[in-house]
TrEMBL record:
<dbReference type="GO" id="GO:0016887">
    <property type="term" value="F:ATP hydrolysis activity"/>
</dbReference>
<dbReference type="GO" id="GO:0006261">
    <property type="term" value="P:DNA-templated DNA replication"/>
</dbReference>
<protein>
    <submittedName>
        <fullName>AAA domain-containing protein</fullName>
    </submittedName>
</protein>
<dbReference type="InterPro" id="IPR003959">
    <property type="entry name" value="ATPase_AAA_core"/>
</dbReference>
<dbReference type="GO" id="GO:0003677">
    <property type="term" value="F:DNA binding"/>
</dbReference>
<dbReference type="Pfam" id="PF21960">
    <property type="entry name" value="RCF1-5-like_lid"/>
</dbReference>
<keyword id="KW-0235">DNA replication</keyword>
<dbReference type="GO" id="GO:0003689">
    <property type="term" value="F:DNA clamp loader activity"/>
</dbReference>
<keyword id="KW-0067">ATP-binding</keyword>
<keyword id="KW-0547">Nucleotide-binding</keyword>
<dbReference type="InterPro" id="IPR008921">
    <property type="entry name" value="DNA_pol3_clamp-load_cplx_C"/>
</dbReference>
<dbReference type="GO" id="GO:0006281">
    <property type="term" value="P:DNA repair"/>
</dbReference>
<dbReference type="InterPro" id="IPR050238">
    <property type="entry name" value="DNA_Rep/Repair_Clamp_Loader"/>
</dbReference>
<dbReference type="GO" id="GO:0005634">
    <property type="term" value="C:nucleus"/>
</dbReference>
<comment type="similarity">
    <text>Belongs to the activator 1 small subunits family.</text>
</comment>
<dbReference type="Pfam" id="PF00004">
    <property type="entry name" value="AAA"/>
</dbReference>
<feature type="domain" description="AAA+ ATPase">
    <location>
        <begin position="54"/>
        <end position="206"/>
    </location>
</feature>
Length: 360
């Protein structure tokens, strides 16, 4: 028992030197459940499990970068602090290392399985891995189960999800499942009904700001509150993206708003303002020139629409009835983007719709 719960220095999951050289997303990833912020419901459940309560199968869903995988990994590290036990008891499957064609090809050859490498077959192989892991006997100890962490479950086919449901039922005595996805609507009902569901909301500005200020203090980064708030706003509740952008900006001596725009790929306010003035103008050449400039700068049409929407929404000079008319026209644009491959055509479609609303 003592060896099971021991937390020796040589059995740490990552040494201090490794964390120093790791990307900041990994370096500042929560190491225990107490470090997980904002998501109080799931934190409370995980703490009760650590105190001895039963662990249900859990489905975590929500936007990217909100801490779903980090919360699960922090819990598993705390539950199985010894590295060898952690490796024996945890099976983690994710898109980066378990679902690629090359990985499946390699592992299938090793297992001497003759299968056709289509996407349904990939998922069949993933289900096969889960079944093989769940079938293993659980070593005697304080914790009588193994854990499967399956990320991006919403990318699984319906048949693979149905097979996973049967595995969850069959091995319920020895295995618990953490299913992680972005879109819970893509998970079949028989699977969701067998799990306790927890929604991870986008992290609010203040929550992200506290974490980023902590990182800035540790890394010696000098950045103003307004500039940091701008960075967080552009990331739309995605803390992972915020940390990655902050690391990219850390090489700058003086981090300004211009660097924020260039690093995040956001459209500067002056360019949005110029294209809105062109929409107000009756000169079609001016609008085409402004649109061509945005296109040559490499901005995506969807990103421009988002910035345009925010700008018009905050424009007090526009009446609400005018805003609604413009947004009604803009709402038609994203579905049309699927029909057009060229970004320039997407820009023209968007701003012609806006221009018509202004000139009415």
């Amino acid at each position: 028992m003592d060896s099971f719960v021991a937390n020796s220095k040589e059995d740490k999951h990552s040494s201090a030197s490794e964390r120093m050289n790791a990307p900041w997303v990994e370096k500042y990833r929560p190491r225990n459940v107490d470090e997980v912020v904002y998501h109080s419901e799931i934190v409370l459940v995980l703490k009760k499990v650590l105190d001895g309560a039963d662990l249900p199968n859990i489905l975590l869903y929500g936007p990217p970068g909100t801490g779903k995988t980090s919360a699960v990994m922090a819990f598993c590290r705390e539950l199985f602090p010894v590295h060898k036990v952690f490796c024996d008891r945890i099976l983690e499957l994710n898109a980066s290392d378990e679902r690629g064609i090359q990985v499946v090809r390699t592992r299938v050859c090793c297992l001497s399985l003759n299968i056709f490498l289509s996407f349904p077959t990939i998922w069949s192989f993933v289900v096969f891995q889960i079944k093989e892991f769940a079938h293993r006997a659980v070593p005697k100890g304080r914790i009588p189960f193994k854990i499967v962490i399956l990320d991006e479950v919403d990318a699984m086919t319906g048949a693979a999800q149905a097979a996973l449901r049967r595995i969850i039922e069959k091995y319920s005595k020895t295995t618990r499942f953490f299913l992680i996805c972005n879109y819970v609507s893509r998970i079949i009902d028989p699977l969701t009904s067998r799990c306790a569901k927890f929604r991870f909301k986008p992290l609010p500005l203040e929550c992200q700001k506290d974490r980023l200020l902590y990182i800035c203090k540790n890394e010696g980064i000098d950045i103003s509150d307004d500039t940091l708030s701008m960075l967080i706003t552009f990331c739309e509740g995605d803390l992972r993206r915020s940390i990655n952008y902050l690391q990219s900006l850390s090489f700058r001596q003086n981090i300004t708003s211009d660097f924020i725009f260039s690093t995040t790929g956001q459209v500067p306010e002056k360019d949005i303002h110029e294209v809105i003035l062109a929409c107000h103008s009756s000169d079609a050449t001016r609008l085409l020139g402004a649109v061509d400039y945005l296109h040559r700068c490499g901005y995506s049409a969807r990103l421009v629409i988002d910035r345009l929407f925010d700008h018009l929404l905050d424009d007090d000079a526009l009446a609400d009835i005018d805003k609604s008319a413009i947004f009604d026209k803009m709402a038609v644009c994203p579905p049309l983007f699927e029909l057009f491959g060229a970004e320039l055509i997407k820009f023209i479609v968007t701003f012609v719709c806006v221009k018509r609303s202004f000139l009415k």
